[in-house]
Amino acid sequence: MTQDELKQAVAAAAIEEVKTAIQDGEIIGIGTGSTANFFIDLLAQFKGEIEGTVASSEASAERLKKHGIPVYDLNSVDSVAVYVDGADESNHALELIKGGGAALTREKIVAAVSKRFICIADESKLVDQLGAFPLPVEVLPMARSHVARELVKLGGDPVYREGVTTDNGNIILDVYNFPIATPRKIEEAINNIVGVVTNGIFACRSADLLLLGTPSEVRRLTAK
Ligand code: 5RP
């Protein structure tokens, strides 16, 4: 199976999870990236059965709207029943690195609001320890050099992601060579640097369920 076929399979499995999880009138949170796009495209077949969605990026909102799926402003909904999104890495505690598509801040907000977070990924994303994937950090533009110096003090090698402006008008620093042994602590430490909007470690709000695509099956993993 190709990586895209694995992503398609987990997206289909997520549709089944969502169909059983949501009640009439409940809102679905939608992630960003190629795996989330497969989910959006499948969700379109059931648009008549759902109240609507909130999106974690302008790109996902646009894709949802093209399918005729209602997209609400997060401030106009009381709650989000379930959030479905991909990841760049997951460990066995379902703590994640996200933000490869630069949407980490809105993704973290939607995940925080949602009652349940279903992560969908192909098997290449499951790791024993987070950090082989460079950690994205969203930063206010004027704080770029300051935040970079602070990230070096924490032991990483930050690299400015050229040509990328987030949906919030900020820049991304990707932190290389930064093994993450204590995800929660490091998430909090980076978020405490002045000028950081947020970072791509999802440990304070980890996933509740990981649907992992393998060639033989879609595995259902809950936190160990
Ligand atoms: C975007 C993300 C994505 O979920 C992550 O990059 C995974 O993307 P893909 O599904 O394309 O592999 O965090 O900011």
Characterization of this structure:
There is one protein chain. This protein is α/β, with parallel strands linked by helices. It is 30% helix and 25% strand. It contains 6 helices and 13 strands. The protein has helices at 3-21, 34-43, 58-66, 104-113, 144-153, 183-191, and strands spanning 27-30, 52-55, 80-85, 89-90, 96-97, 114-122, 135-139, 157-160, 171-176, 196-199, 201-202, 209-213, 218-221. The strands form 3 sheets. A 6-stranded mixed beta sheet has the order 2-1-3-6-12-13, with helices on both faces. A 4-stranded antiparallel beta sheet has the order 8-9-7-10. Helix 1 (3-21) packs across helix 2. The chain is globular, with a radius of gyration of 17 Å. 49% of the residues are buried. The model has no long low-confidence stretch (mean pLDDT 97). The structure holds ribulose-5-phosphate (5RP). The site of ribulose-5-phosphate has 17 residues, from helix 2 and helix 4. Ribulose-5-phosphate (5RP) is lined by residues 31-35, 85-88, 98-104, 107.
In DSSP terms, counting alpha (H) and pi (I) runs of 4 or more, how many helices? 6
Q: Count the strands?
A: 13
Mean of pLDDT:
97
- Secondary structure class reads alpha/beta
Write a concise keyword list for the protein shown above.
single chain, 224 residues, alpha/beta, six-stranded mixed beta sheet, 13 strands, binds ribulose-5-phosphate
List the helices and strands and how they pair.
Layout (H helix, E strand, L loop, with lengths): L2 H19 L5 E4 L3 H10 L8 E4 L2 H9 L13 E6 L3 E2 L5 E2 L6 H10 E9 L12 E5 L4 H10 L3 E4 L10 E6 L6 H9 L4 E4 L1 E2 L6 E5 L4 E4 L3
Parallel strand pairs: 1-2, 1-3, 3-6, 6-12
Antiparallel strand pairs: 4-5, 5-11, 7-9, 7-10, 8-9, 12-13
The structure holds ribulose-5-phosphate (5RP).
